[in-house]
Design a protein that fits this description.
alpha+beta, Wheat Germ Agglutinin (Isolectin 2), domain 1, His-Me finger endonuclease fold, two-stranded antiparallel ribbon, 6 helices
Length: 199
């Protein structure tokens, strides 16, 4: 019987503990479809040069059909809709799929100097000031209180568009809400009254 901490390898058909499977961002359960032992065997057959692609037979990498493309990062063969567009290149599609690109961008944005240089240039605050705001808000959106760890996007830096003064950190939903209301308290109050009338 399959349990929460068990998974069946699609190659050897053995039911194993989840620790015997590597992580995979594309699968529903977050784990690769074959166990580590099977992956190791296939890699030896391939000479350790390439990772396995789940839609291609092990050791064989034929030309993919027109509707599929292999990601150079995770080596999954995915629908072309999973790849972003680029100006250069014969196919006009990026070599890395959207999920792998999002993970890399998020890591670069968090740790890289480009992010902080961009923030300081745009909003006039340093990395230390940003971190201090983040700590004061306890890692949560300044309006709805959703924690950063539950979001896929980083907090937006909310600022007064007239004075340029930074007010705090908001999730994308709350930041858009304020922007759509043109930062006018009267509009936001009217929206509250409107919703209360329908309760």
């Amino acid at each position: 019987m399959k349990t929460k901490n068990m998974k069946t390898c699609s190659n050897c058909n053995k039911e194993l503990e989840v620790c015997n499977f590597t992580k995979d961002i594309h699968s529903d359960d977050g784990l690769y479809h074959i166990c580590k032992v099977c992956r190791s065997k296939y890699r030896k057959e391939l000479g350790g040069k390439r990772k396995l692609s789940p839609y291609i037979n092990p050791g064989v990498f034929p030309d993919l059909p027109g509707e599929l493309k292999e990601c150079t990062q995770c080596h999954w063969a995915l629908p072309i809709s999973e790849f972003g567009l680029q100006k250069k290149g014969s196919t006009k599609l990026r070599a890395v799929c959207k999920k792998c690109r999002a993970i890399k961008n998020k890591s670069d944005w968090l740790e890289g100097s480009k992010r902080w240089n961009s923030i300081e240039k745009t909003f006039g605050i340093t990395k230390e000031q940003y971190v201090e705001m983040f700590r004061k808000q306890r890692g949560r959106c300044g309006i709805c209180g959703v924690p950063q760890v539950e979001l896929t996007k980083q907090f937006a830096i909310d600022h007064d568009h007239e004075t340029g003064i930074v007010r705090g950190l908001l999730c994308s939903h709350c930041n858009i809400m304020i922007g759509q209301a043109r930062e006018k308290i009267t509009i936001l109050n009217q929206a509250i009254m409107y919703l209360e009338n329908w309760r």
